[in-house]
C-alpha cells in the first residue's frame, strides 16, 4: 500500500530534490502515519428482509427517503395466505360454536345424560320396591336379582354418559385453544406481509420492485442512519501492529476535493482479510463530517506518532532499509543509520549521522 498520500493538515512535510549533490540532516517536526483506504458508511445499517413468501404488491419508499421506526415500507400479497387465513377462521368459529351454550354436540350428550338419569331413578325405585317385597316373601329371589341387575346397569350407564359429556367438553375446550392459536398465528403471518422499519434512518438502496416474487429472507432494501456516518478502513497487514484505539486519522474523500476531515480510531478488527491482506479499522469523525452517502471512497493517514524537532533526512536518500551514502573528505562511503519514525518524505535519524554529515544521492 502507498503511505502518506494525503497532505496532513497538522504538518507540511518537504523533501529534497534528487538532483541535489548532497544534503545534511536537519531538525524538523515529523509526523509518522500509516496509509489506509476505505469508505464512508452509515451507522445502524441493516438489511430489510422479507418475513414471508409472496408477491411484492406495494413499495412505499424510494432511495434517499427518511423513514421512522415502525413505518410501513413494503406490502406483500401472500400466495396462499388468504385461503389459509379463511380456513383457520372457519375452524376457530366452529370450535367456539361447539363449546357454546347452544352447542349441538353438547346438547345431544346432555340429553343422553338426562335420559340415563331418568332411567336410573326409575330402576332405583323399582329395586327398592322389589327389595321390600322380597323381605315380605312376596316375590322370588330371582325377580329381585333381575331388578337389581337392571338398577346397576342404569347406574353404570348414567356414570358413563356423564363422564363422556365431561370428556367431550374438555376436548372441545382444547380444540378451541388450538384453533385460536392457529388463527392468531395466521394473523401474525398475515402481518409478516407488512414489512416495517426497525429504526429511524435513511433508505440507501431498494432491491425489489412491485410484481416480483419474494421468498422469505429475501433482501428488500438497505437502511442506515441518515446523519451519523463512520469510516471503514483497510490497513495493510505490515502496518497492522501499529494500530491503536484513539489514534488520529486524517481523511480525504474524492467527492470533497478541498476538504480534509479528522477522525479517531474507534475499533480494530483482529481478522485478516486474505483477499487483499488487510485488516479492518473503523474510525469516528471528529468535528465536521461528510454528508450521509453510502460507500464514499476515501484515503486516510492514521497518525502513529508526533515527533517534535527530530533529526531527519529525505527518505529518498536511504539505501535498502537502514543505510545512506555520505561524503567525507571527498570520498563517498556507505554508512548504516538507526532509523526512528518515518513518513512518505522524511526519516528520523537516531544514530549514525549528525548535523554536519553530508548525505549524497545513492547513485
From TrEMBL:
InterPro entries: Beta-barrel_RND_2. SUPFAM superfamilies: HlyD-like secretion proteins. GO terms for cellular component: efflux pump complex. It comes from the Bacteria. It comes from Larkinella punicea. This is HlyD family efflux transporter periplasmic adaptor subunit. The lineage of its organism: Bacteria, Pseudomonadati, Bacteroidota, Cytophagia, Cytophagales. Residues 229-278 form the CusB-like beta-barrel domain. GO terms for molecular function: efflux transmembrane transporter activity.
